[in-house]
Amino acid sequence: MNDHRIRSIVFVALFTALTVIGTMIKIPLPTGAFVHLGNAVLLLAVLLLGYVKGSLAGGLGFAIFDLLNGYATEAPYFILESFIVGAFAYGAFLLFKKRPQAIWQLVVIGSVTGLAKLAMTQLKNTVMLWYLGSSWSGAWSAAVIKLPATVINVVATILIVAIAYFPLKAAIQRVTKGLIN
Fold first, then answer.
1. What PANTHER family does this protein map onto (predicted)?
2. Are 42 and 86 in contact (CB under 8 A)?
3. What share of the chain is helix, strand, coil (3-state, %, to 5)?
4. What is the DSSP letter of 101?
5. Which H or E run contains 35?
6. Residue-wise pLDDT tens for the chain (181 aa)?
7. Residue 46: how many CB atoms within 10 A of its CB?
8. Residues paired with 27 in a beta bridge
């Protein structure tokens, strides 16, 4: 196995572990949902590792968290959601030619990512409630009640990524340059 493949596997594993840890750092809300840092790790993984590796790391991290915390039935959904939300993140990243230079650009990327996360959360919760017997409009309304936690997660994600992206990118570049030289 060459150094590049090993490095890729290590970074995916690292961001998978960071997603699990970030999701475990949670603040419960009265709705039953919780605020956590896992979404910020997913976005950082997509920006630093690329779409496929970053989404894979985030999806695996969320799935492992779910398996360890009694949410096993939701694990496959969160792998899928990581790739969908990751696609929106990467699309916004491409708007800046994969080289954001300012915090406002990270805020834009985070906002696009956040809108995708909000849409996926609303859709998932609506479909789950509808499947359980609610009318579509009742399911939609009940799902809206759960969105405040996601809104808080989105805002936290934007702030964390805006603060952490540039130092992490520089650190990864130093590490990978040191491995090549």
1. UPF0397 PROTEIN BC_2624-RELATED, UPF0397 PROTEIN SPR0429
2. yes
3. 80, 5, 15
4. -
5. strand 34-36
6. 788 899 999 999 999 999 999 999 988 878 777 789 999 999 999 999 999 999 999 999 999 999 999 999 999 999 999 999 999 999 999 999 999 999 999 999 999 999 999 999 999 999 999 999 999 999 999 999 889 889 999 999 999 999 999 999 999 999 888 654 4
7. 31
8. 35
